Amino acid sequence: MEGKREREMDYKRSSKKPSDLLLWKIREFTRALVEDLSNRRSPEILIDRFRNYCANAKANCSCSSDLPKGKEILTLQKESNVHRIDVLLRILLIVQQLLQENKHGSKRDIYYMHPTVFSEQKIVDQGINDICILLGCSRHNLNVVSAGKGLVMGWLRFSETGRNFDCISRPCTAHHIPVYVEEVEDIVSVAQYILVVEKESVFQRLANDQFCNTNHCIVITGRGYPDVSTRRFLRLLIDILCLPAYCLVDCDPYGFDILCIYRFGSMQMAYDAKYLRVPEIQWLGAFPLDSEKYCLPKQCLLPLTSEDKRKTEAMLLRCYLQKEVPRWRLELEVMLQRGVKFEVEALSVHALSFLSTEYIPSKIRAHLEILSGDCSFAMKSGA
Amino acid sequence: MNFASARELCLYLISSAFQRCRLSDDLCRLSVILKQSSPASDHPVVQISISDTGIGSCLDDFRTLKFSGESVGNDEQWDGVISVTNTSVSDNEIYHYQLNLKERDSARRLTMLPSNSKNGVKFSGTEVCLSIFISINVLRGEINRFFQKILILKIPSVAIELVTEYGSLLGSKVENLFLANSFNPLPFSASNLERLKSGLEDYVLKHGNVLNKQCDLCFQSLENLKIGSGTASHAERNGNGGLVMEVVIILSEISERTSTCFTSCSARTEVLYFRDFSTCSISQSSLKALTSIDWRSYGLTLESVKDQGGYVEIEWENLPPHTRIDIVLHAYPKQYPTVIIPSRRPKVQTDGNLIKKAVKLALDDLRNKHAGVLLSAHSLKIRSYAPDLAKTISGLILCSNDPDFQHECFSLLGLQSQGVESEIVEASIKEKLLVVIDMNNRKPQKSKEVAPFLFEDDHFNEPGFQDEECEGEDAFSATPMDI
């Protein structure tokens, strides 16, 4: 083990490209497999386990540490393990080829290379995650991408592998979020904040209302559960532009879950959470009490289904809510107590542009006021 | 000791005679003579003489015998009388007496007859005679079958003959000899287990010892015969010395061409059971133990386990064609050979767990000695991945653009570095994978059990979990380990 680490350090020192190091790691992995088999040893593949939350908010858990929380051992003794190793090796072979030839492939491309073995896309996704953990890298390092589904508009300009994305020239026109986020450069913006909306329908509403013409901002949607590209792109914009980010989701358990994925990252990709989460993001709405505050008629409120309730109860147990965003947790509790949910679009019940002209601006003003209040308090305290 | 039929008693008397021979220090002879007195009848009287030159018997060996059968059935009738002639080495006389096993009054059961002087000659022996109204061929068949089974114990010091005289009208006489060492002889020093293994092998090769020599049609090569054995024993309890259980299992694959031998292949197995060097019917607890063995982990599925009245028959559900399984179990006290005649042996219960343990050891032995044999369905499933895994691993080697890495892998695989073809690399990896998978299959079941999850909370599943990267959280499972 020590020898391997030394060899890795030597290789890092002599290597020219990050892909060379990954190829070296793939070869080391393969060599270890062959060595085990040649010595009549049953190979064991150790994969670190990551999690970004647990269900024990009271305990002193280490979920926020980004460190592995244990290991999984894949062996040739259990059929499910052997299938997983089969999948892992097949994807590893494809990745080796992509890296050697400096090409990119999508998750879907990989799936269609062995559809019978993989049987469904999520098996490939799991295999890619396993490889990322094994090689200690992010998915894009493997030259594996997913077809981006996120959209962006607003006061922003950037380029990606020679392509210019000039959103500023028409700030209310949607652009696809680039697939090769790592290749994005020359980011220029005069926006004052970034607004992340859960759904495309809300995004289109804002586009139709020319929201970005009257508000100097960047609007992003992951169209439901956000993909890696959308989250990496959002993370990149915040890192480069240092803008505040707000998130607008439906007032239902799924909206809240999506909000949490932007804020804390997903469990499945917990190993890469530090590159994907956006701790700065603030919850703009919709809150359970907004239905009263904005006088939503009863027919816009839907009762929580039993599945909604189960999901909400499970989410309430997540340790990070209690530790890091207790106010969000309180709002979730209120949702469960009230037993109703509503979509952001319901706020348009009184006027089609209510969201653009009233709701969002007032919420952002409220946030800014709280912020300035905090600042003045801090200044007074300092004085 | 109580008997319900004369035939049963007859086999017991033969078995006792065999034990006396077995325990003698000298080579001994056991003769069973069946003589038909009136051949005209369907069920004539058959005079039976069972004589041995073994260690000699005593009166008490016969006094304890009781007969509860009515003997009025169609197939046998008996007056209940046995005539015994016996002497031990230490005796100066040869004793004669008659016992009526049907007599309830114990004072009238025994009739002592005048004895003869041995004139100073040292020898020992016993002869028991009785006459039964029975079909001579039925009786002969049963005794024949008994000796064919006894040969499995392969006791070399006992020569057995069975003589059948069909009466003066037919004038015919059939003699059968049963000699343990006439085929595949073993040294006299061979252990009981070695004898049992060799004995069962002979039994299989000679189709149940029906033939005098190996069936060349079915067994052209002994490679098709796979033998495994296992021994389990009790620790000494209550001073009875404990019990040893020896099990031998033979898996035979018979060439398809020779399937004309009708007994050679069968999905049924007669479990041959010996107790204290004597054939024995299997107890209910032993039957239960056999049923409860995890045969599936050896790729075998029980269709049924039936007590066929005296012997147990296992029917297999998925036995490949032209395959046969033979099983023999032998239980005897650890203090052998001091315990002798069945009537004098202490009662030691055969533990079901002892049978299970010994059978499992025999199955494991078979699997360890013969690659690819008795693999569980689980193991076969894992083996089915080997070609794909080998192909991918060889792909990772051969598609690499680093020749040094390739040479290193070839060297690890024991292949030459120059001009290696992908098929050879693949075949080499596949072979090594199969070795490792078989090795895993042979490990005790315990080590294959899934370790408990380290984090209990890792199991909580939130409903509606569907984020794009989060799908398939439970698509696979693995063994977590603390670090």
From TrEMBL, chain A:
Catalyzed chemical reaction(s): ATP-dependent breakage, passage and rejoining of double-stranded DNA
Pfam annotation, one family: TOP6A-Spo11_Toprim
Compartments, as annotated in UniProt: Nucleus
MF terms (GO), sorted A to Z: ATP binding; DNA binding; DNA topoisomerase type II (double strand cut, ATP-hydrolyzing) activity; metal ion binding
Cellular component aspect of the GO annotation: nuclear chromosome
GO biological-process terms attached to the record: meiotic DNA double-strand break formation; meiotic DNA double-strand break processing; reciprocal meiotic recombination
Spo11/DNA topoisomerase VI subunit A N-terminal domain ranges (all copies): 84-144
Protein name as catalogued: DNA topoisomerase (ATP-hydrolyzing)
Species the sequence originates in: Ziziphus jujuba (Chinese jujube)
Gene for this chain: LOC107404703
UniProtKB/TrEMBL annotation, chain B:
InterPro entries: MTOPVIB_plant
Domain of life: Eukaryota
Name assigned to this protein: Type 2 DNA topoisomerase 6 subunit B-like
Taxonomic source organism: Ziziphus jujuba (Chinese jujube)
Gene, per the UniProt record: LOC125420329
